[in-house]
Every structure is written in C-alpha cells, then in structure tokens.
Amino acid sequence: MNTNESFTKHASKLKNCIRKDFGNYHVDIDDLIQEGSLGFIDAIEKVDRSKTKNIFNFCYQMAKWRCLDYIRKEKRHHMEVEIDSLDEININELHVFDETNKVCELIFIEKALNACSGHHRQLLLLEIFGIKNNNSSKLLSENSIRRIKREFKNSYLVLTGS
C-alpha cells in the first residue's frame, strides 16, 4: 500500500471519528472535519518517525485536539440564546441602540414584536441581538428565514409609512 492510499484510508477513518466524537457539539461538522484534517496533516509533518512507533495514533490525537480547540474558539465567538428565553425578554431591557434614537427605535421594535407571533417573533429577537443566521437556522429552515425577512421588510414599510 503506497503513501497516498494509506493517507486516504486514515483520512476517511478520521472523518468518521470526528463525526462520532464531535457530532453533538452544535458546530458545523464540515468545519470540524476540515480542522481535523489540517491537524492530521500538521501532525504527520511534525512527528519524529524514529521515536514514534504508531504514527497514526499520534496523528488522530492531534486532529482531535485541533477539533477541540476549534470548538472552544467557536463557543467564545458565538453568543447562544435559548429559544425558550426569547419570549421572556422585556422590550425595556434592550440597550443596544444609541441614546438619541432609542425611544423611536424601541417604539418601532415594540410595534414589530406585537405584530409578530411564534417563530417570527423569535427570529426578530435573534436579529435584534445580532445572532448569526446559522444559529437561527437551527430554529427554522433557510427558506423560512428568507420568507420571514421579506415579511419583516414589508411590515417595516407599512409601519414607517414608506
């Protein structure tokens, strides 16, 4: 078996290990596989073949560590909001706007929240807090997000009188 076949065989095993070990971390699995593959390749390049008896075990371990580092970085960068707690948010608690336009914007947001219900209201709250679309897509499908954003745009035009 040549080097390319061996590497391909171990790379496919690595993908399966990553799916099995890190599938429930709510992180994009393709990104994890890519990070794991990069860690695997880095480990192959850095390992001292004369001192290491089983190179591939070491490489798998390095790939898993790289995946864990990636998960830690992603958790730090993304703010997660539980969907159940979105209904409990009071409009007066939102302090994300400038002081000059705060009253007007709060009134507009309150009207928009009152006009929405269910998933639409939750998606609007996710937008207000700056949650990324990949986090909100866990709640809704992509088509639903586009449709709801179109409805918000139409509601905005009606509410502002434009």
From TrEMBL:
GO biological process: DNA-templated transcription initiation
GO MF annotation, one: DNA-binding transcription factor activity
Classification via Pfam families: Sigma70_r2
Family annotation (SUPFAM superfamilies): Sigma2 domain of RNA polymerase sigma factors
Residues covered by the RNA polymerase sigma-70 region domain: 8-76
Taxonomic superkingdom: Bacteria
NCBIfam families: sigma70-ECF (TIGR02937)
This protein's name: RNA polymerase sigma factor (Sigma-70 family)
